[in-house]
Each structure stands twice: as structure tokens, then as C-alpha cells.
Design a protein that fits this description.
Elements (H helix, E strand, L loop, with lengths): L3 E4 L4 H18 L4 E6 L3 H16 L3 E2 L8 E6 L4 H20 L4 E6 H4 L1 H10 L5 E3 L7 H11 L3 E3 L6 E4 L10 E5 L1 E2 L10 H5 L3 E2 L2 H13 L4 E5 L16 H9 L6 E5 L8 H9 L6 E3 L7 H7 L5 H14 L4 E8 L6 H14 L3 E6 L16 H24 L5 E9 L6 E5 L5 E5 L8 E9 L4 E6 L5
Parallel strand pairs: 1-8, 2-3, 2-4, 4-5, 5-6, 6-7, 9-12, 12-13, 14-15, 15-16, 19-21
Antiparallel strand pairs: 10-11, 17-18, 17-20, 18-19, 20-21
Helix pairs in contact: 1-6, 9-10, 10-12, 13-14
């Protein structure tokens, strides 16, 4: 499939029109219009919100952390978990009063949840205070949609499916000065039976590799130290094109960029993870030794029902190769508890896989029905059983994680400083190459700087230590 490449500059007409409206607002009120954005969901949603923030800044808006002070309010939504959807609907109701008090405020909702036709239709019929609704594939038309809402006072719904379209050159207002998300592809072709993503984000579309290399090169030149490549399945990068690229080749090219920085990526699907990818991580000094490799279930029967296209044996074989190839490898994963028809034996196979692999961390989820997916029509298991198994799995992983982290006690690790600890403002925090949180007493290091920390203690969720000078190592 040939991807349709669009450019943000195609929206110049609408960007200029919104700027004029923003300037008129400034002349009338003495301040620029303010925007407030909030993100639910994954790193891809966070990356999308940074682009929306960049476009709003481009069109004359300034950011505010106070929703009630904003002239434009946007929520970027997630459709992957039921809990996220419930939070969105709670937010929608709360915005009614704001619209009543400030009739001119523009309220927008975007993201995966909006791409579901049943959701967008419900918002159109029941929630008249929402002005703009658009899906992930319409982000490149945001200036046009905002102008329509501002100028016509009409509601705008842009949720059509556009497989193949990629918009480049969108300005980005990044949340961090040293950590950056870089999307390398969009959509998904896997159709795991529990997952809504292919239906709301469309089929796989890979960006031009040279554009990715240019973006990362510019980020490094601007001082960014931790760059995460994003895609629903980064391992299938460029499979939808006719060029001779693959993900391993892209990583090697990014590793060749001059500078002191780290490269991460997520998410990596086991069915497409190859020895070439593992060898590339092992041989490239700037590629982090952290591999996030979702296994979802330890049972082959459940994996087949999930349409994951690998077996427990293949997964363990891949993990063994990675452990033998990559020094100090840190493995993390995703696991779903309570998938339809899951038996006690199926669940015990999941626990045994966790025992065998020794993950540093797990993202654990209780299965929730996503309407429109094959798993929604399968035989569901009792909610009480789901929660009991979830607690059992989490208890096991907490023990495994503390044991894993304890092996770093007495070692000195290179840390990228991120800021202050949420629990203690006298402590700073950062992350290792393996993405493990490290807390340490205040020192002279600033966020975005690499320092060395000697580890003194460990819990299941973090390491603790003291900053040390290079000559004391």
C-alpha cells in the first residue's frame, strides 16, 4: 500500500484565519486566547496531544493549566479500556456548566474513543455543548476544524476512516525539554481479538525513514536525551511500503547520530520480533537495554483465542535469545487477566511464565469488553474470579520485581535526571537505561543531565541510592 503523504502547510489558509481570530480576541481582551488540553491513554495519545498543543500555539493560543480559564478545552480520549471511557463520560457531563457560564468557549474531544461511530453519534445527539469531535486520523485537519467551529458556530464532527494518510511537519509543543516521543508509524494490522485499536486508528502506515532520522537528529541537536519511538507494533515498521527498510535498520541509522542520548521504543509485538532486532539492540550503544515485549497470556489456548499469532514456546525462545544477547537486559511486558473462557489452568500457565521469565515490571490489566471486537461475543468469566486472579498475579509480580531490582544494590548506574520525587521534594528522581526509576537525595544535577548513582536499596517499584562523582566510581 502506498501511503498518502500530506503536509501541515496545506492547512495554512485556516492557520492564518484562526490567527486573525486570535488577534481580534487579543485586541478585545488584552490577552491571547488560552487553551487547556488533557490526555487519557497511551504514549501515542500523549504524542498526539503535543502536536495539537503545537498547532494551537501556532494559531495564537497560549497554554493554561486551569481548565475553567480556557477559551478552548480539549480532551484526547482512549478506547482501549472501559475505565478510561467512563472517565471521559464523567468529564463530558462536568463541562456542561462551563459551557453555560462561557458560551463562547470551544469544547473539543478527540482520540481513539471518538473514532467509534457509536460514541461519536451519542455525543452528537446527547451532548450539544461539545463543539468539535475528531478521530486520530484527522489531527492534520485540526486548524480547519477549529476555524469552522469558531467562524460558523456550528458543531464539527470529523471521524471518517482514512487509511493511508500521514501528515508531516506538524508543529509540536513537547511537555519535556529532554524527553521526546517520535511516532514512526500509525495504525495496526494485527486484530488481536480483544483490541479496538485497528478499528479506531486504522491500518498500519509507516513514516518515511529519512523524515524520522531528520526529526531525531533535530531533537538531539536541541538537547533531547531520551527519545522514544512509537508505534502499535514498531517491529512491523515499513512492512506496508516497497522500500528496503525495516525496524532494525532504522535503529542502526538512529544509533549513528552524533550525541549523548538514548533511544527507546514501544510497543514490540513478539510475532514480529526477530534475532536481527535483538542483535541490533545488543550492538548499538544508544539503544536502551530495555525490551517491552507483551505476552498477554501464558496459555497457548488463550493466545490462539486472542489471535496473537505466537505460542508460549516461541515467546520463551525469543526471551532466552534476548537474555543471552543483550547485557543487563531489562524485560517488561503486558498481561491480561480474565480473558473470555480463561480457566484456572490457563491462569496458572500465565503465573508460571512470569516465574520463568523474571520480568522487571508488568502492565497488568483485567479484561474488559470492547464492543466491536471478536472477544466481546465470547463466553465471559465471572468478575469476582477476574479480580481474584488479578490480585494473585500482582502479588507475585511485586515479589519478582523487588528480587529483580535488588540485584542492583551496590552497583553504580547511569541515570537521566527527571526532576523531583512525587513522594519527597528533598529527593530527585531519574531512570536507568533499563527504564527503572531511581530516587536519590538532592544534588547539583538538573533535569536532563546524566549522573551516576550508587544503589543502596530497592523496592518493587524503584531503586534508591546516592549520586556519586565520576572519579569515585
Amino acid at each position: 500500500m502506498k501511503n498518502e503523504l500530506l503536509h501541515y502547510t496545506m492547512q495554512n489558509e485556516y492557520i492564518d484565519k484562526v490567527r486573525k481570530i486570535s488577534y481580534s480576541f487579543f485586541l478585545m481582551h488584552g490577552v491571547k486566547p488560552k487553551y487547556y488540553t488533557h490526555t487519557f491513554g497511551c504514549q501515542q495519545n500523549e504524542s498526539d496531544t503535543e502536536k495539537i498543543n503545537g498547532m494551537l500555539s501556532d494559531m495564537g493560543y497560549i497554554q493554561t493549566d486551569l481548565r475553567d480559564d480556557a477559551d478552548f478545552i480539549l480532551y484526547n480520549t482512549c478506547a482501549v479500556r472501559e475505565h478510561a471511557e467512563n472517565r471521559v463520560f464523567g468529564t463530558i457531563g462536568a463541562l456542561t456548566q462551563i459551557k453555560r457560564e462561557k458560551p463562547d468557549v470551544i469544547i473539543a474531544f478527540c482520540g481513539c474513543m471518538m473514532q467509534r461511530s457509536d460514541i461519536s453519534e451519542e455525543l452528537k445527539k446527547k451532548y450539544r455543548h461539545i463543539d468539535i469531535v475528531f478521530g486520530p486520523q484527522a489531527i492534520g485537519r485540526f486548524p480547519e476544524n477549529l476555524y469552522k467551529a469558531l467562524s460558523s458556530k456550528q458543531r464539527v464532527f470529523d471521524v471518517i476512516n482514512e487509511n493511508g494518510a500521514i501528515t508531516e511537519d506538524i508543529p509540536v509543543k513537547r511537555a519535556s525539554r529532554y524527553k521526546a516521543w517520535v511516532s514512526i508509524m500509525y495504525g495496526c494490522n494485527n486484530f488481536c481479538s480483544y483490541c479496538i485499536v485497528p478499528y479506531v486508528r486504522g491500518r498500519e502506515r509507516s513514516r518515511d525513514p529519512e523524515m524520522i532520522i531528520d526529526e531525531v537528529s533535530n531533537l538531539v541537536a536541541d538537547g533531547y536525551k531520551d527519545i522514544t519511538l512509537l508505534g502499535q507494533n514498531v517491529n512491523s515498521f515499513s512492512n506496508d511500503t516497497n522500500n528496503n527498510w525495516n525496524f532494525a535498520k532504522l535503529l542502526r541509522r538512529l544509533n549513528d547520530i552524533d550525541g549523548d542520548f538514548r533511544i527507546r521504543f514501544m510497543t514490540s509485538h513478539p510475532k514480529d520480533a526477530t534475532p536481527e532486532l535483538i542483535d541490533t539492540i545488543a550492538s548499538c550503544s544508544k539503544i536502551c537495554n530495555h525490551l517491552h515485549l507483551p505476552f498477554q497470556s501464558g496459555s497457548n489456548r488463550i493466545l490462539e483465542l486472542m489471535n496473537r499469532k505466537y505460542t508460549r514456546e516461541k515467546y520463551l525462545q525469543l526471551v532466552e535469545y534476548a537474555k543471552n544477547s543483550i547485557p543487563d537486559l531489562v524485560l517488561t511486558s503486558d498481561v491480561i487477566v480474565g480473558f473470555p473462557t480463561e480457566t484456572k489452568e490457563d491462569f496458572e500457565q500465565t503465573l508460571s511464565l512470569i516465574n520463568e521469565v523474571d520480568f522487571q515490571g508488568l502492565y497488568t490489566f483485567i479484561y474488559s469488553i470492547r464492543q466491536g471486537t471478536p472477544a466481546a461475543s465470547m463466553e465471559q468469566i465471572d468478575e469476582t474470579i477476574k479480580h481474584e486472579r488479578f490480585e494473585q498475579l500482582c502479588s507475585l509480580q511485586n515479589i519478582k520485581a523487588k528480587t529483580f531490582n535488588s540485584k542492583y544494590i551496590g552497583k553504580t548506574l547511569r541515570i537521566l535526571v527527571e526532576g523531583f520525587s512525587n513522594n519527597d521534594k528533598n529527593m530527585q528522581t531519574g531512570r536507568t537505561d533499563g527504564n527503572i526509576i531511581v530516587n536519590f537525595p538532592m544534588c547539583e544535577a538538573k533535569p536532563g543531565e546524566f549522573i551516576n548513582v550508587k544503589i543502596e536499596s530497592a523496592l518493587n517499584w524503584a531503586l534508591f541510592g546516592q549520586a556519586v562523582k565520576q572519579d569515585n566510581i
